Amino acid sequence: MANRFRERFRSTGELTTLPDHALLGVIRIPHGAVLSPWWLILRRVFYALVLLFGVAALVYFDTDGYSEPLTFVDAFYYSAVSLSTTGYGDITPVTQSARLINIIIITPLRIAFVILLVGTTLSVLTEESRRSIRIKHWRKHVRNHTIVVGYGTKGRSAVAALLADGVTPDNIVVVDTDRAALAAAENQGLVTVHGSATKADVLRIAGVTRAKAVVVAPNLDDTAVLVTLSVREIAPSATIVASVRESENQHLLEQSGADSVVISSETAGRMLGLATVNPSVVEMMEDLLSPDEGFSIAERPVTEEEVGANPRHLADIVLGVVRSGELYRIDSPEAESVEPGDRLLYVRRVFSEDVRRP
């Protein structure tokens, strides 16, 4: 059955073999703020006027070099028809110096003026070239990043938790088929990839073979299973954290290769049930799950001074000990003492400066 799923959703084309400019509509790399189109137009008009007045002044100061005496209006007229390459021929340079000035100065300015006239097209081409260069640089250097599949409610919450835990936005890649969701992710400074994560080529574009972790948070459980299968096949060493709505699908995610499965509907249901009888417990649980303020659950390595001690007697409120990738709760026999290389799962007090800290 798993093989059937793989064959069905495996793409016949390999997008990663395409040049960088072919991925302009797929990958978006956040960059600085984009100027308003009206401001760009006004700026080009200003540059054009500067060129017109500059050439007019140059011609006016050499009025004796032309076919007739020139007023400044005549000089400005000659500047306009010359720079726009109209060239009526009613005013022409006749002396050697005037012709030399036209060759050395006015002709290059004429080319610059034409470039300004087609500046919008050139701006688009330049922007696409810049985006292509950014994509090339990103594909070459991306390493140990986190991929978030789906930027819905669960995906946004996962990204918020990652950012609050110190992960930089450029180290998070969002994969989704919704352009509006990707635009929201890009506004957060995240790298985005447009496409279905059930396809192997889209995952490769997102750099799944170099990713440290993949968060699978689509809206449908069957999509989560297919994405998990594809990710585990392409990136055997990546950590996969998946979300499902129904608990009956948990074993499918685990069999597909997910390292951890979060059941969203049951978690929400339990919180609702607790809220009816113990609202203060729910408030504390939300505080622990919120990365912005109050308390949060974190993980850290043990210090040399803590080796051999009972985790219950440490300064931090320890909930469990992670040893060789296995979690032991604080009441288990394995967590009686801390060993070298262990990591502690503890309750951390979150201050406002912790959130702002890079």
Automatic annotation (TrEMBL):
InterPro entries: K_chnl_dom, NAD(P)-bd_dom_sf, RCK_N, Trk_Ktr_HKT_K-transport. Residues 143-263 form the RCK N-terminal domain. The keyword rRNA processing does not apply. One of its GO terms (biological process) is potassium ion transport. This is NAD-binding protein. The keyword Membrane applies. The chain crosses the membrane at residues 45-61, 100-125.
